[in-house]
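Help!! Second protein's tokens look totally different from the first
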Amino acid sequence: MQMRERDRYGEASGPVPDETAADWQLRLYQVEATLHGQQLAAVVALAGGALRALFLLNGGAVLALLSLQGALLGQGRAALDSAALAFALGSFVGGLVAAFGCAAVAYLAQTLHAEAGPRAERRAHRLRRLACLLAGASLAGFSFGAFQALAALAR
């Protein structure tokens, strides 16, 4: 029987004599597949969290701005500038539409990713890029709306 070296944890290292190279290749493939699955799950979870944040930012901004306008009108105080308010609300709603588009395109990309073949994978990659652009557009809509809302408050 062949003596095997021990690693720093006292475990025997190297292949067991009756295991073949094919067994090791299969084990390596299983480990890589598990790692890839865990990485994909982490990416999906992060993307879902980012989408929820975009929905919350833009939707919350619409509600907050309309609530502020209603409170100002209810107190008999001067309301926000209507042009600035309309632009801010339009930007927030545009951000919401972009976030919905991002979610839909990401779903399509994931569906294509599940299909086999290099053509489907290329399409999925393009759709993922589009989803990232839509997420950026949603964040830009929030930013523009927030700056316009601040300008409306300052008037």
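Here's the second one for comparison:
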Amino acid sequence: MFESIHTARLVLRTLKSSDAKRLLAIYSNDKAMAFRANPPMRSLDQALEMIEENKKAGFQRIGTTLKLTNELIGTFMFDMLDKHIAKIGYSFDQPYWNQGFAKETLGAMLKYLVDKEVREIKAVSHKQNIWSVRLLKSFGFYEETHENELLYLSNDLENHSQ
């Protein structure tokens, strides 16, 4: 089970059923979900199902909350593909874009994964999601390949120093 991580402005923690309304607000925003494979959420039941996914072995969706208010502003997902390889993804509510919250979250989670002996991280981003691609590249991710509008990125974490 994931324990919480505290950064300067955030608390990263396991999602709870009480987060369902905020998850729905985040994942129902058409603009925020423009580059996601899944369509925007349309019901509270879908948000509750997302929380239930965390019970799947190796899979975790972590809530990113503001330290001062405990408001859920986004999520970070990691799926352990094997003991040393993980796939990641993240989503943030539109009012919290361009404030460094994704960078703060990604930095903390990369450190967490390195501490868990993960040696390689894989991420997928839509080519047009320029901000996400830039963020990943700023943490040493590089393009492995691409398919249609998607970029497949990877990072060798054994040498990660951020």
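Reply: Different proteins will give different token patterns, so don't panic. The first helix runs from residue 20 to 27.
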